[in-house]
Amino acid sequence: MGRKGSPRSPQAEGGSRAASPPSPLWALPEELLLLICSYLDAQALGRLAQVCRRLRFLSGRDVLWRRIARGCLNSGFTQLGTDVAAGIPVKERVKVSQNWRHGRCRRETVLKWKCNLMPWMELDGEYLYLSQAENIQAYQLCAEGTGLQRHPQAIFSGHQEDVCRFVLVNSHIVSGGGDGSIVLHKLHGSYSVKFSAHEQEVNCVDFQGGLIVSGSRDRTAKVWSLSAGRVGQCLHTVQTEDRVWSIAISPLLSGELVTCLGTDFHRGAGVLDVFYETPSLLLSCGYDTYIRYWDIRTSTRKCVQEWEEPHDSALYCIRSDKNHMIASGSSYYGVVRLWDKRQTRCLQSFHLSSPTSSPVYCLRFSTTHLYAALASALHVLDFTAS
User: Which of 327, 319, 329 is nearest to 360 (CA)?
Assistant: First the structure.
């Protein structure tokens, strides 16, 4: 006879153990779960992913990582929130961003050439375009890593002397050369145009909306038409006091002509590279070792922020992720530096040309790789390596 008031076993109730009630967490709508998780930082989201498969999937959603990514370096988001690296999970970009911040990367020299050059390059999807002497060569990027296909997929020629600079816009290449000419090529086709532009070498060019602008050692900047029936016709000539080393068209084609950034600089403090982040915000660098940030809505005479190269080197090239990160290339010892705009000192430095000294003539980067062109080699930094 059993004790009075003793509980009955589960088997006596139904012959099997009762099922555990579902977690109250999963009773919530997914929208509410995502809202709760949106208050977590990267570390908390990582810990949440270790609880179970369902939370691992939930905590990896792009919508949760976008806010975090926008505060990271080179995560593929601009200041305005535009995603320029769609297709890559945002969580993975945040992880790689930490490698950029801490300088964790694998270095590789992917191309070498025998004579010293002043190369320029552009990145476009799966291809890297690199000027070598009088030609521009298109190399396909290897899908599995940092390398390039050893043989170029295409070669664009037309100059009689070295290509100084070129731009890649809307499936067209526009280049300026030491022979004073400008050449336009269509990437996919045989169409090309060449015309004499300046009395001396064309140091810089830009192309947008049917217009080409160019700057030369002959102390002039010119605007050229590419409209039907007027190809190669000079629309405007701007006389300058010195050689023109860098030139850029506003993304909005506003028609405003800015011929001078800043005043009261020492002699020789010329601008060597300019990069527009937005139609009103741009970066410049040059001989006087400073990176400067300009807001042309307020003034073209005084910059809003500046960073000084710590080793007193001229800065040949500059690029940004259009958000927090800047990359610069110096004239001494092949030094590439990474900067965070929210700090005054550089984050990381990479010496690429030791033991011989060479400037970094041009650099470009994606969310995972940085490419730097020196006098005799092309170097790649792979930031996916942990």
Answer: 329
